[in-house]
Structures are given as C-alpha cells and as structure tokens.
Amino acid sequence: MPDFKTSPGTRDILAPHSARWRAFQEVFAKTVESAGYNYIIPPMFEDLDVFLRLGEATEVVTKEMYDFHDKGGRHVALRPEQTASVCRAFVEHRPVTPWKVWYSGPNFRYEKPQQGRYRQFDQVGIEALGVDDAFLDAEVIALASMFYSALGLNHVELSINTLGDGGDREAYSNLLAKYFSKHESSLTAESKATLTRNPLRVLDSKREPDQEIIAGAPAIRESISKQSADHFAAVLSALDALNISYKINDRLVRGLDYYRRTTFEFVSTALDAAHTAIGGGGRYDGLVEALGGPATSGIGFALGLDRTLLACDAEGVFAAPQTDVDVFVVDTVDGTHAHDLCHQLRANGFSADRAYDLRSIKAQMKSADRSGARVALIIGSDEVANSTIMLRPMGSGEQYVVSRKDIFNELKKVLK
Ligand code: AMP
C-alpha cells in the first residue's frame, strides 16, 4: 500500500487545535459584526482572469497560483487571497454601498512550506467598498487591533504607510526604478530580478547586501499628491483619537500590486525573525474597476490564522477552549439505557458521550476518564430495577444514587 500523507504545505488540523481555530473565527466574527460587517462566503476557485486583475507584478499571481483547466476547458485557479473574489462579487451583485463584509477560510499559494508558511492557509479578513472617508481607514485598522486585544495579544505593532494614489504610485515606481538601476551592480541577484518586475518590491528585500541601498532610496511621502497626503494625515489623526499607536514605515509597500494610499501591517514582536507579519491590508482603490465595475474605493485587511496563533503561543494567550462533554454514561446492562439516556441528555442541553460494544465496567470507566467528562452516570441492573442512576463526579472517588426523574436537576447542580 502507498504511504498516504498530506501533500506538502497542507495539514490536518486536529483537536484540540481545531477547536482553537473555530474559537478564533468566532472571536473575529463577534468583533467585526459589532461594526456592521456581514459574512460573505466567496467560492474557493474563480476564473483565472479574476486573480490576474491583482496585477502582473504580484507574486502570488505570477509564481504561486494553483491554476488548472477544468473538465469544461475553463482556466480556473484556487484563490490565493479573497479580496479579488469580494470585488468580483461586488461587481456581480452591485450591492448598496458602503458594502462591509468579512470572510474566513482557506487560500492557496504554491510557496515553499516552512513554519508559519503553508500552501493551504487560512485567513480572516474584512473589506469595505464604496467609501473614501479616512475615518473608514482608521475603523478598519481599529477593528484589527480590537481583535488582537480580544485574543489577549499585547505585543502587536502597527506599521503604516501611504502609497499615494494610482498616479503617485506609478511616478514613485519610476523614481525607484531609476534609483535602483543606478545601484544595480550592488543589488543581490534576487533584487535585480524583482527590479525588472516591480521596483517597489525591492523595498521588501530583507537580504543584507540590499539594505544600504534600500536605506538611501527616496521615500514615497516626498512625491505624493496633496490629496493623498491630506488623506494620510486624516487617517493618522483618526488613529490618534482612538489611542492606537503606530509607526510610520515609509518602506512598507506590501505584496499585492493593487494597494493605493493607506497600507498597513501588523507585526508580532513576540515572534522570532522570519514570519513576524501576522496581518496586513490597505486601500485598493482601482481593483473594482479593473474587474469591470464602476470606480469604487475599497479597503480591508487579511490576518493569517496560523501566524496569529503562533503569536498567541509566544505570548501564552488564547488557549484551545474545552470541548469535553459534560457527562459520560456507563451502561453495564445491555447498552440500550446508555442509548436512551444520552439522547435525552443531549435533547435537554447536556453534552454526553458513552462507551460502545458493552465493554467491562472497568474499560468503560477508563473511557469516561479519557473523555474529560466531569460526571459519569452509571446504570447497572440495580439502577434499572429501581429507576435510579449512580452519579459519580469524576476524580472525587465518591458516588451516590439519584432517582431517574431527578437526574437533570441534579446534573444542573453538579455541573454548575
Ligand atoms: P497577504 O494576503 O499576503 O497580505 O498576507 C496576509 C497575512 O496572511 C500574512 O500577514 C500572514 O499572516 C498570512 N499568510 C500569507 N501567506 C501565508 C502562508 N503561505 N502561510 C500562512 N500564512 C500566510
């Protein structure tokens, strides 16, 4: 038999970790729904063209896409992120603006797998379309920050920058192209290659030999329009009003090509070097238009679930929630009593599990132990004859008889 294993860069998320994932999504839902964002479930694959609108210089599109021809001959791709799908949905359904949505789910990128970097990875995120107001930029950032606090994280730093509007970005890109070309001979081979594709991304290089040249590069703030500069100032003052601290990082350009104006990233200072970025986002005015819709501004963020949970581990917060059942039923007669009682317990709001295959009382008690239940309910022939149940609070070494008709009330008291 072949040795079946998960494909590289994918994982099975098992208990108790899986419960933590679900709790993560629930905390996120609560945070963003408190600000009027509605849940959207976009498809996991789209026509390749949708993602190509993210830009030819965007690495997740050019290098990392899972694309293939389906049986109908359509060229489709698994989503590498969800903003493009949300914008496609906006163009398709034309909802009333402002359109505020949140999402949660897996994305696919053909990357080199390592800790905190997978080929299938989950993100949660929000997008708000149709509003230019700087207060919205600050709201979006504040919600991410509120979410981190709700998880219990204390060591998350916000970096923020502006990329100017479309024209500014293009002019800056040309300026950088000129600057880096002048210093090309000192750049690493990787950065030289990046330079031909997208000069802005050279700023992202973490390679040591590039650092001195990057440090001397012009900053975009020096060349943006007054309108963009005013917008950025308004965002910063709205953040100040909420006491949200930030660092302006004029080297922050981020991966995706479509970002305009406000761009931001959250970094966990509790994590070591390689993957400290736990989330980020920005404005993407222009993407809806590129997908065939009316000129519509947009802003959002995506937070990586894996890396945020790694940050939680590093800070010792947001442990996996308990998912153990309340009650374990042990039936030493014939199994039918456990069958009936479990069903009634569940119907009455208690979580309950049982042993199967009529095993010995010793084996069943062992299963009760392993289940994590706080109470075992034991039914033997005496209990059946007397319409009673033996109640044993686990780990107490004690047990007592309860009349069958009083069992729910007694459990309520014991499990309080
Ligand atoms: P991006 O969509 O590239 O802006 O990434 C947003 C966040 O998603 C990052 O800050 C990471 O936390 C997470 N992320 C991106 N790519 C991966 C990956 N391959 N594996 C795990 N997390 C990822």
Question: Could you describe the 3D structure shown?
Answer:
By secondary structure, the chain is an alpha+beta fold. It folds into 2 domains: 241 residues, Bira Bifunctional Protein, Domain 2 (BirA Bifunctional Protein, domain 2, 2-Layer Sandwich), CATH 3.30.930.10; 89 residues, Anticodon-binding domain (Rossmann fold), CATH 3.40.50. The protein has an 8-stranded mixed beta sheet, sandwiched between helices. A hairpin with a 6-residue loop joins strand 15 and strand 16. Helix 1 packs antiparallel against helix 5 and helix 5 packs parallel to helix 10. The protein is elongated. The two termini are 51 Å apart. The mean pLDDT is 93. Adenosine monophosphate binds next to strand 6, strand 10, strand 11 and helix 12.
Could you say which small molecules are bound to this protein?
A: adenosine monophosphate
Q: Structural class from helices and strands?
A: alpha+beta
Helix content: 25-40%
Average pLDDT score: 93
Number of domain modules: 2
CATH topology of the largest domain, anyone?
BirA Bifunctional Protein, domain 2
Rg measurement, Å: 28 Å
Classified by CATH, the class of the largest domain is Alpha Beta
Number of helices: 16
CATH superfamily of the largest domain: Bira Bifunctional Protein, Domain 2
The global form is elongated
The main pleated sheet reads as:
8 strands, mixed
What's the total count of β strands? 16
Low-confidence stretches: none
First and last CA, distance: 51 Å
Strand content: 15-25%
